[in-house]
Secreted protein (Streptomyces gancidicus BKS 13-15), 192 residues
Amino acid sequence: MSIQWTRRARRGTVTLIVAAGLALGAVGCGGGGDDNKPEVTASAPREEGTDPSPQEGQSDEPLAELRGSNGLMLAITSADRDAGGFVTVNGTLKNDGSKSTIVPSALSGNETEIIRNGRSLGGATLVDSKGKKRYYVLRDTDGRPLTTSGLSTIKAGETLAVFMQFPAPPPETAEVTFQLPTFASGTIQISG
């Protein structure tokens, strides 16, 4: 390749990137000119005494609260089955202790492929007692667990939102036992 060709290619690439940036900026900042629109609010006010609909958020009551080592606590807030054949478990990991704690490496489980990808909640499982099956955290094509990863130290009182994705048990299975190394087990209900 000649030096001139390389320069032209670089100049063309830079021009393309700048044009794309300007186009995105114009779309993002475009007004539409209607100043009479009402401002969007985060949530609509609710009437007293009405129950929240599923669209208004989740229950304040967790499905399960599991205690772990070093003052860690996992509150499971939802376990949702989707049409694709997966169950996503959401929750919060909190340090209830009085000092910072290192997230135990045992939470990643003992599979070499998962350990290679750093600290995560890859050791979590769902157990279907009736179907006599255990469901492990899913992995992507590179072997990374489909769960919160990059966990290291949690300060005292700090809370982290976490998730784990599993293959879904059969539709008739609604109750499973959630297990995570170093934590107590807990029974949770799968919705959906």
Q: What stands out?
A: The radius of gyration is 23 Å. Residues 102 and 153 are 4 Å apart (CA to CA).
